[in-house]
Design goal:
Layout (H helix, E strand, L loop, with lengths): L1 H22 L4 H10 L4 H26 L4 H29 L1
Length: 101
Amino acid sequence: MYYARVQELYAKYDYWIVFTAAFTPIPYKVFTIASGAFGMNLLAFSLVSAVGRGARFFAVAGLLYAFGPPIRRAIDRYFDWLCLAFVVLLVTGFVVIKVWA
């Protein structure tokens, strides 16, 4: 029952699920395995993973470049939570637009 429901959601939102897992502190390995189990296209998975992980690492690099070493402690302490909050706000925004549109 749960497997079929997750498979249905994965078929509908596979790219968004992988991108979210790649960008946030959610355990990425779980979604990597699920992508294979649910038959996600390997090329699409690779591209979405590269974009999601790349965005995460470039965000850290950009912050370090812009603010220097003093921001490193804040990044180490809060970056995962900020990424998660960003994704939650983004998803909430899409849900609100979909409900009200």
